[in-house]
Amino acid sequence: MCTAFCFAGILMFEKKTELERKIENNVMKVQKPARYIGGEVNAVIKESDSVNHRIAFCFPEKYEIGMSNLGLQILYKSLNDISAVQCERVFAPDVDFEEIMRKEGIPLYTMETKTAVKDCDIFAISLGYEMLYTNAVNLINLAGINLKAADRSEDEPFVIMGGTCTYNPEPMADFADAVSIGEGEEVWPEIVAELDKWKKSGGSRKEFLKALCKLDGIYVPSFYDVEYNDDGTIKSFTKNYSEAPDTITKRIIKDIENSVYPTSPVVPFMSTVHDRSVAEIFRGCTRGCRFCQAGMIYRPIRERSREKVRKIVEEQINNTGYDEISLLSLSTGDYSDVENLVTDLMSFCKRRDVSLSLPSLRLDSFSFKVMDEIQGYKKSGLTFAPEAGTQRLRNIINKDISEEEILSAAEQAFELGWHNIKLYFMDGLPGETDEDLIGIGDIAEKIVNIYKSIHGKTGRLNVTVSVSNFVPKPHTPFQWYPQDSDEEFDRKHKLIKERIKPMKCVRLQYHDSETSFLEGVLARGDRKIGRVLEEAVRLGCKFDGWRESFNMERWEKAFKNTGIDPEFYARRQWGYDEILPWDHISTGVDKEFFMKENEKALKGEITRDCRKGCNACGVNVNLGIKCEVCNN
Amino acid sequence: MRFLVKWTKEGNMKYISHLDIMRLFQRALKRTDIKLKYSEGYSPHPKMSIAQPLSLGYTSLGEYIELETKEDFSTDTIIERLNSAMPPGVLITRCTELKENRKVSALIVAASYTIGLGKTGVDGSDHAVSENALVSAVENFVKKKTIPVEKLQKKSGKVTEVDIRPMVRSLEYVSEEEDCFLLKTLVDTGSNSNINPELITSKLCEYMKVLRENLEAHTRREEMFAESADGTLIPLYLLK
Questions:
Q1: A160: distance to nearest CA of chain B, Å?
Q2: Out of A4, A40, A270, closest to residue B223 by CB
Q3: Which of A189, A360, A553, B167 has its CA 20 to 30 A from that of A262?
Q4: Range of lowest pLDDT (A1-15, A186-200, A217-231, B224-238)
């Protein structure tokens, strides 16, 4: 019997800080405690003696979403590669845990060392999409930090924001001490160097911000004042600190091949949204779809070599033990050496017993051969994105795909044994008519008929038509367009639904119009939107990206209480001559290029893929970088 | 080759669920290039199973996992490789090769636990438990012939009455530590008869007139046992 109890003398109550004890006593009361405890494989925890700067890096969503974000893992590595820095992850606690945290006085804390965020030097927040804004504001509050940068005292952390959404930083400007525009890998070490210098100098909070704004790609909102016209448009945007830049140009990694990449990413215990190894094969996109913000703001295209991708994949599998690899880019099929890359990876995966997932391949014969081999007899589904129902509208949005291509791809897919097809479309696009919407149903019908002609019946066929509502985004040729009203979206959904209804094997999915409207308001918001966000959070808005927590009534109240008209932002035709809230931010693409593209859209003229010749968007000149495809 | 691996689950690992632990082992095996055999069939899965999943929130010094590898390894290699790939809180302590073709986890009949009861209440009050009260609560528990407890049936949602006394093979007060009192207990575990030690803790609270919610309690599984032909208990790692 003695073997059973020989460890009983070991103290079961480990020494803990008060915060750790509080977390421990409460975390079992909530769903999925694994979200809140850290300690995962590859998490970086340094001896506190060696740490001079503590940075809380937050993706303001639930753990399982945040942990799937590649940007977070890249910057986590970039910062922790600096020996004196401890970068720690922070996510949004789910509603059940937040309630307990507030009741029990548990402030927002970091995963690695369970340090209160308010005791860190910097609270970095990544804004990947607009619906995270309320979470971000709520988390600053949960951390016990003053919401507005202007109210923060000398000893509070600096709140620095970054991520895709900050290409229009204005809606979040009041809450940010500084904003990092563009790719963060190189600028974060520079921020740390400034932090180090500033701490040693013993200067004031403002002095640190003054130093920061001199770094390329850093925007300090408090150094700029905005004045408005009576109609609500911007009258002037002027700096109040003469040494601040007039235009903040995005940071960009020029040498992607040798840039920092996480080959030992943190491996979550619990299952997450993207529970797999990820290799980013290139940044940017050459297609120039006019609605697509990502295709504009991530220019120019920069590829990693096949050897590098292969090395990343191998190291990641060795260091994580994942059983799936996914390639990441805006369009895998456009990788210049895609056939060799994929062939190479397939043999690696076979050898290591790892599955390979290839999003966004082109609809060519090579892709089918590959997909057939990867998916074998367990074929899941194939996804096509025609985006619009007619060639006319596809020309307007510059989506270079023809109906013949879609149909012949579907035919090949059916012949090879696929039964599930998903089609992505948008509604509410500029220049759209009801015919274009009916065209969505026409394409679905033609696909059904192709299946019938091959198999004789609809049998196992499953076609999903997914329609998302067009939201005009900053830094795109369509940034001046009014967004459709809820009623108009609803009418369009109904129209598509009726066209599709008789087809039993076709299923329609569409997005909720209210969410799209709010996304539109926040995407093109100016600084006044900060007041609305503060009020919305006060009223309890959070997790707006989740259907079960999104509450439009609260938002309507927030707009009403602050006297801000959301229609002004989403449903107005903006003018070429007005100052856009994001005009001081440069992605490297000229505003004139967006205008030119918009004019071409009106005429239904297409713009060629950059790989077929330079379209003079300006990015190479403005960013001082040679474009890999057009060589300009 | 078939192996029985003994491992610990300590610190924050106690919050990691059974399914997540399975995934942790799968990834650790992959990282260290130990390939498992797969079952036959339409949807093959690796031959690996964790014996008697531990309740979420408990630590353990006596967890077990059975593995069947494709290639041959020495038991030391398995221990070494897995330990190189585990996060803090999981430590492989033993590995034995299983010669007999049987599922060892099916042989488990009992498990021993240490229960630590905090001296300070969750609310910060310092009157939670006294040594005298605890000793007499334990005596009270042990001398009872039956201890009926209401139990919620997970599937039907019905509340049924269960007598937990026969399932508790032993319960003793061990010692007073800096911030807690330690108890040890040996209870039925396995498919025939199974009891969660939380039921003992709750009962003792009732006897001591202490609110369970205000008591900080830590439970640690120490070992799991099979039964030999003569009825004596054998720690699982001694099985071949």
A1: 30
A2: A4
A3: A360
A4: A1-15
**Residue B60 structure tokens:** 């353990």
The whole-angstrom separation of Cα B172 and Cα B233 is: 18
Q: Which residues of B162-195 are buried (b: 16+ CB within 10 A; e: fewer)?
A: eebbebbbebebeeebeebbbbbbbbbbbeeeeb
Same domain, A141 and A217: yes
Interface residues on A facing B, Cβ-Cβ cutoff 8 A:
1, 3-5, 7-9, 11-14, 25, 27-28, 33-34, 36-41, 43, 267, 269-271, 317-323, 353
Pick out chain B residues at pLDDT < 50.
none
* Helical residues (DSSP H) of A81-166, grouped into ranges: 95-104, 133-142
Residues A575-599: what's their mean pLDDT? 97
Q: Do A12 and B220 touch (CB under 8 A)?
A: yes
Q: Report CB contact under 8 Å: B15, A317.
A: no
The reply to whether A608 falls in a domain is yes
Tell me which of A199, A234, A249 is where a domain ends: A249
Distance in angstroms (rounded) separating the CA atoms of residues B170 and A30: 32
Question: Per residue in A32-41, pLDDT tens?
Answer: 999 999 999 9
Inter-CA distances, B116 with B199, B212, B217, Å: 14, 13, 6
Contact A60, A135 (CB under 8 A): yes
Is there a contact between B35 and A353 if contact means CB atoms under 8 Å apart? yes
Both structure tokens of B134: 């605890």
Q: Of A249, A284, A302, which closes a domain?
A: A249
The fold of B108-238 is Alpha-Beta Plaits (3.30.70)
Q: A4 lies in a domain?
A: no
Task: Write out the residue range of the structural domain in which residue A45 sits.
Answer: 34-249
User: Nearest residue of A to residue B175 by CA position?
Assistant: A9
Q: What is the ipTM of this complex?
A: 0.88
**CATH number of the structural domain B2-101:** 3.30.70.580
Chain B residue nearest residue A22, CA to CA: B122
Token pair 């009992």: residue: B110
* Percent of all residues in chain A with a pLDDT value above 90, rounded to a whole number: 87
Give B97's Cβ-side CA count (13 Å radius). Answer: 9
Tell whether A194 and A85 lie within a shared domain.
yes
Min Cα separation B207/chain A (Å): 23
- How many residue contacts between A and B have a Cβ separation below 8 Å? 107
C-alpha A433/C-alpha A392 separation (Å) is 10
Residues forming a β-bridge with B46: B38
3-state helix, strand, coil in chain B (%, to 5): 30, 40, 35
Q: Which residue of B has its CA nearest to A270?
A: B20
- Chain A: nearest CA to B183, how far in angstroms? 9
Q: What are phi and psi of A173, to 5 degrees?
A: -60, -40
Side by side, which strands form the sheet with A462-469? Answer: A382-387, A420-427, A462-469, A506-510
CB atoms within 10 A of CB A95: 16
CB contact at 8 A, A266 and A41: yes
**DSSP labels, A244-286:** S-SSEEPB--S-GGGS---SS--B-SS--TT-SEEEE-EE--S
